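Researcher: We're teaching a course module on how sequence relates to structure. For the next exercise, students receive a sequence and then see the predicted structure as tokens, so they can try to spot secondary structure elements on their own. Here is the exercise chain.
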Amino acid sequence: MALDRETVRKIAFLARLKVPEEELAALTGELDNIIGWVEQLGKVDTKSVEPMTSVGKFKPYMREDAVSERRPREDILANAPDAEDGFFTVPKVIE
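Model: And here is the predicted structure for the students to work with:
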């Protein structure tokens, strides 16, 4: 796929990028090379490759779900910017 300057200008606009006019030619060439490389990937035979859900075959470490050291509520709330009646208070988000 060959890109022209107008297409690159439109892509930059959609991506909310300000690309100076003097850099459009270089960017056009770079994007054209990238799209060519991606098109090459589409030609690779992957029929015998099983789809992956992760890069490694391992079982995640699961720790025991146990109660650990408890800290007094006052110590925890001392770090809060605002607290009321023993709870964190946050600004109202929905009106």
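Model: If you want an answer key for the exercise: Residues 5-42 form one domain. The longest strand covers residues 83-84.
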